[in-house]
Amino acid sequence: MTQGSAEKKANGRGKRPTGQRTLAESMKLDLHDPREQAIANDFIRRFDKEHFRRLLIDWIVARNHSFSIAEEAELQAIFDYLNPSVSARKANVTHTTVRDKIVAAFEQHKQQVMEVLRKAPGLIHMSFDGWRSGNRHALYGICCFFRDECNKPCKITLGLPEVSARHTGPNIAAEILDVIESYQIQDKIGYFTLDNAKNNDTAMEIIGGELGFVGSRRRGRCFGHILNLSAKAILFGHDADAFERRLSGAEPLTEAEHLIWRKKGPAGKLHNLVVAIHRSDLLTNMLRGIQREASVKLSDPKPNGRKPLDVILDNDTRWLSQLYMIRRALLLRDYIERLIAHHRIEFEQQNKSKRGGCRKSLTLPFICQPENQLSDKDWEVIELFAEILGYYEATIKMLEGDGQIRKRKRGWTGSYGNIWDVVQGFEFLLEQLERFKEIAKEFPDPEHFRININLGWQKLNEFYETLSDTPIYYTGLALHPAYRWKWFERNWADRPEWVDEAKKIVHDVWRFEYRGDTLPGEESEEPSAAEPAFKHRKSSDNPFQDYLRRNRYTAPDTGRDGLTPGEDEYLHWITHCETGDSSVDDPLTYWHDRRFKYPNLSRMALDFLTIQPMSAECERLFSAAGRMVSPLRHQLEAQIVGMCQVLRSWLRAGIIHDLDPLFISVIEERTDVELAQMSDQQLEGWATKWLTPVANVYEELEANGKY
Length: 707
Fold this sequence. Notes:
By secondary structure, this protein is mainly α. The protein has four domains: 5-93, no CATH class; 106-220 and 631-664, Nucleotidyltransferase, domain 5; 227-348 and 363-389 and 696-703, no CATH class; 401-519 and 533-609, no CATH class. It is 53% helix and 6% strand. The chain is built from 31 helices and seven strands. It has helices at 5-12, 23-27, 34-46, 49-62, 73-82, 85-88, 95-119, 169-182, 198-211, 223-236, 240-246, 255-262, 266-278, 281-297, 321-331, 333-350, 376-399, 422-438, 446-464, 472-478, 484-491, 496-514, 543-550, 569-575, 587-593, 599-609, 616-628, 638-652, 666-677, 680-686, 697-703, and strands at 124-132, 138-147, 153-159, 189-194, 219-221, 406-407, 413-414. A five-stranded mixed beta sheet has the order 3-2-1-4-5, with helices on both faces. The chain has a two-stranded antiparallel ribbon with strand order 6-7. A hairpin with a 5-residue loop joins strand 1 (124-132) and strand 2. It is found in: Nucleus. Residues 1-21, 519-544 are annotated as: Disordered. Residues 586-651 form the HAT C-terminal dimerisation domain. It comes from Purpureocillium lavendulum. Keywords: Cell cycle, Cell division, Kinase, Metal-binding, Nucleus, Transferase, Zinc, Zinc-finger.
């Protein structure tokens, strides 16, 4: 009868395994000789127990092993054979050792983080979202955004609690409030950026009621989620999001589901085709083979240098996943059409009747049936969808960053992920869709195309009209010195009532929340030297970025006269411009430098300009947590997963400076090294690369004359 691992461990305690040598035996020392005994003692003393543990933990993390692997008797025997000091110094670790180190590190550093948050000069903004880990924990990521004492924008994770009950608004609110109270920041909470889930509306009502504000006024909506809904409406028509959730592609399509997708037009038919290829090893390998054959026939000098491409499957969780599916399909169009032809020939050959023809009762595979084929007109429509969604992608790229100012290529300095770009993002995309509606008659299937474009426009406009529910967006744009109220007056010239409403919303925030006495101690400080002007980026390959540049307001210099005693800061600023305002790329520095001239207005501006336009930080958190919860570590407790991710974020934010390698993903460690070595040009693309795994598809499409 064989022994289990637990029994082996129990039987092995207290005795040395066969073949294991002591240190004295390894070094052939005579312990009766005082000199040789001293050598053995010195050797044991020189063994760095903590360094050994760090190396062991680093290996566990690097290979995503289970924490309990360090307790395996066979592994410990190897350590003792290589260096008996491991046992002599009791350096082996257990899974409880690792867990205890995590909890101790969290408790050790939390007070330090609380102090940093307490000293933050402005409001602390938040974002939260739900995620289900690979080991079936329902977790809620809670991130916060604030300015430190040096006016540097910071972001950290506050918690990743498990919500084991139903994800109702009250249950979500309870978890969020518990985390807020644990950091003692109830009186510093600002605005929230959340997705459009209904339970978030209820949660915000409860959170606002507990913390003393109106929840709906403090709730911003994730811009990326809004664009995703609009993009799906363009591709799939009315109620596209509910449709895709029902048919998420998690299981092979039934005939009925296949028909429903087909009725959604060219994009639905393409989805059917991609799902069929993606879920079939036979079709996937056939597609790769066709690409290899074509490469050989074209006398490619490096026939093995270009790896065959697979189709990309869209899903209901990743922003603009349909765009990447479409781009890859356009690139592979010729090969896909050959694949369908080959697949039909093989199928018919395998199902021949005795007379040599196909059996009459034979049903062709879905992708080979004529009604499921993509016609030339279908492909033309799909190409147009790719063009339209390219504008969505350009906008998301500008808004899904972290708001951190970085020096870019050729000295251009700026940031991605800024709240003042949201209103402009809506205007930019609505303008593009209106342009496509005007020229729809020139396209194949113009009525279907026009209807879907209009549905996408309506979805965008639906959320555009909700911007006035909160002061976030109008305030962020109006208090940017390069845009001011002139942006609204110029772009909404035909809607003066909109401009009046926006001005009232912003002025009410100023009047009731910020126009008070100067904070104690502010008048006695000396202003810091102004930062040098940033070099502007004159043009880019991002049409939305060019749109933002064109919409800057160049106003005549009205002088730098100071405020008279009792003069309203807000009214003074909106009527006094300075030379160089239109070239401001960093409004945070702009307002920080003017905090003595406009002590209260600068607080208001800095509070609003640091609000996040998207909940992308939660997505990044889930991505890191997903790498930690591998199949071999499925027993990780939710508490440990959360603490590891929280500690990791504190370290990356620079709030804490030392941490065991256990808490840092090896992939992220390598990324940090790579970032330090990147050029400005490489850094420019880093913030958005996680959304574009097929970044080279544009170039390949152009090279093949298909885009």
